[in-house]
Amino acid sequence: MSIDMQEHIPLVMSMVPSLLISILVIPLLSLLVIRWRRTCVTAIHPSSTTQKRRVPPSPPTLPVIGNLHQLGTYPHKTLQTLSRRYGPFMLLHMGRAPALIVSSARLAREVMKTHDVAFSDRALSSTGRRLLYDGKDVSLAPYGEYWRQMRSLCVLQLLNNKRVRSFKSIREEELALLVKRIEDASPTPVDMSDAFATLTNGVVCRAALGRKYGKDEAIGRKFKTLLAEFVGLLGAFNVGDYIPSLAWINKLNGLDKKAERVAKELDDFLEQVVEEHESKLNKPCQQEETKYNNYDNNCTRNNNEGESDGDGDGDGDGDGDGDGDKKDFVDVLLEVQRDNLAGFPLSKLSIKAIILDIFDGGTDTTYVVLEWAMTELLRHPKVMENLQREVREVAKGRLNITDEDLDRLHYLKAVVKETLRLHPPLPLLVPRVATRDVTVDDYDVAAGTMVIINAWAIGRDPDSWGPNPDEFKPERFLGSPVDYKGQNFELIPFGAGWRGCPGIEFAMATDNFVLANLMLRFNWALPSGMRAEDLDMTQSSGITVHRKVSLLAVATPHSS
Length: 560
Ligand code: HEM
Prior knowledge:
Helices cover 47% and strands 7% of the residues. It has helices at 3-7, 18-31, 75-86, 105-114, 126-131, 145-158, 161-166, 168-185, 192-209, 218-235, 239-242, 249-252, 255-282, 287-292, 329-338, 348-362, 364-379, 381-395, 403-406, 410-422, 455-458, 462-465, 504-521, and strands at residues 89-94, 97-102, 121-122, 190-191, 432-433, 438-440, 443-445, 450-453, 522-525, 552-557. Protoporphyrin IX containing FE binds at residues 138-139, 151, 154, 159, 357-358, 361-362, 365-366, 369, 425-426, 429-430, 432, 493-496, 499-503, 506-507. One of its GO terms (molecular function) is iron ion binding.
């Protein structure tokens, strides 16, 4: 498929508002004669129309819109249903764009391991292009040298284990705020969805920018709103990406204009952040007067030189590994730029794009794991009891679980894996695009085809998980080598291969730590009168699937 076809493939197709689809489909249906496509014999590559190729099975399509009308509010669920009929390797048409839907662990392995390089491109929507500096970030950068350089920068400099450990004191401080909020509310119910979102935003903001922005400062409120708009826009259905002749609708419905405004305002904000970090880097002794005080006086600083860091090693860094490295991501990136450590010239634009990736990739996804884990624990009191027993045994009367304790919490790890299996935060991962023609399992896949891996369906496939795949049962992971790091294709919430998520350690360091400590400190129940079976499990629609209704829970402090 040609490059310009790729331009018309959106970032994700998981956000197709059913209303918009209905509006499109009804007039189209009345105007156009339904044309059924024959499956298995149609050429999908524009350059090979004369040649019959073996293409994966497809449901019938409608003219112009292809299969778009079939996606519904929860595409991961409708695609699962369709794949039961058409198989785990199924070709759909999103308007003009062919999209391969993969719904089994075996075929996910074929795509993400056997043919990893051939499926390493991304689908960059026109909105994503506008918001992420024309794909100059990591997650949407086209496969090639630039992406390789940016990804290794991200992996080696920002998201390595040592750097993740260096944010230990941030995690501890944000947890302390969460615990206080829960204690203050007790015994009235706490909105745990909001509490988890606040915590993960705080951790990411401080790790990336060196501070967080309070509710009472205008710039903080604006940044929060902009981020929400940014994430919403990345997942928004952009009709022009699928049906180029209808691209004018994006002007009419204001999508283009909104993307333009959000991109500009986010850029202004990041420009200011980078400038302030630059002045700190250039004039270290004046940092107090420059970086933080410009914004406000209540900012939470990562650096706490001169104060006890509480980790007992006396180095003032609070990270427990004694290296004194308290740099945030912007600091690190500016140093890499100044000292030319990346091996390629790192532009300011690339720095801003990486920072946006960290927010986009690292906030909603991380909080969603906590939200669904807590939901499942409240629905399964026996599992919660087992987890509390394990955590309290390891704590041996202490009031906190430390990072070092986490290695011994096997049941906790099983609970988190089971949560990721049933509730992968990105059920359809981040779509890939075939870089060249490739044959998979005897089917021909044309270059430019979008590839969507249904991690949600794979996590519930009885062929991998036995007769009751929908049951929340962490015990299935005890003594099992199956992990989520991209080697076991039945469990791929973080994807796998070259484009697999580089933020696993960062995310899991927060999720495991917070969940363990909440289980240690409190006993939990649903608000009075609510039974486990009454808990609303409706999912939100969107790229990242969280609860539609906030999770309310009642906490009682546990006395050890
Ligand atoms: C529970 C939390 C998270 C989940 C479930 C998650 C999931 C994913 C998935 C499914 C992908 C696409 C993988 C593929 O194509 O094979 C991805 C890519 C990515 N994630 Fe995450 N992620 C999480 C946390 C994070 C965090 C904390 C960060 C950064 C701080 C991050 C940064 C990225 C980046 C930069 C990419 C793009 C990689 C590339 O295209 O080369 N993620 N993530």
